[in-house]
Amino acid sequence: MVSVVQNVAIDCANAYELARFWSEVTGRPLHPDDKPGDRETEVQLADGPVLYFNQVPEPKTSKNRIHLCLRPDTSRDQEVERLLGLGATFVADRREPDGTGWAVLADPEGNEFCVLRSTSERA
């Protein structure tokens, strides 16, 4: 027997707005029933679990213990620029001179995530 990951839960201050940001990041839709003011929302990923946003009263106070790593279909650096334009903030540069490494960004509520090299950049 095994367990299947149903969703990745993200506590947040504004579930709908943070889900809209991640919908733009992933290019995937919100659940059709989600609307502004909802305390629980979902981004429906193409395969696997959904991103589940749960509105909580307490603010984020420290570094994430778990985070998402994104592999873009464009170059890593192009994706970093796109995400910054959507409202992400730059946290740390872990890119190396030889092209390896990643960039650490944060979503509008401060949740860190990484942008990796694309598949073509790794080839």
From TrEMBL:
Matches recorded under Pfam families: Glyoxalase_6
Gene3D superfamilies listed in its UniProt record: 2,3-Dihydroxybiphenyl 1,2-Dioxygenase, domain 1
InterPro entries associated with the record: Glyas_Bleomycin-R_OHBP_Dase, Glyoxalase_6
Domain spans labelled Glyoxalase-like: 8-116
Lineage of the species this protein comes from: Bacteria, Bacillati, Actinomycetota, Actinomycetes, Pseudonocardiales
Record-linked SUPFAM superfamilies: Glyoxalase/Bleomycin resistance protein/Dihydroxybiphenyl dioxygenase
Protein name: VOC family protein
Biological source species: Lentzea alba
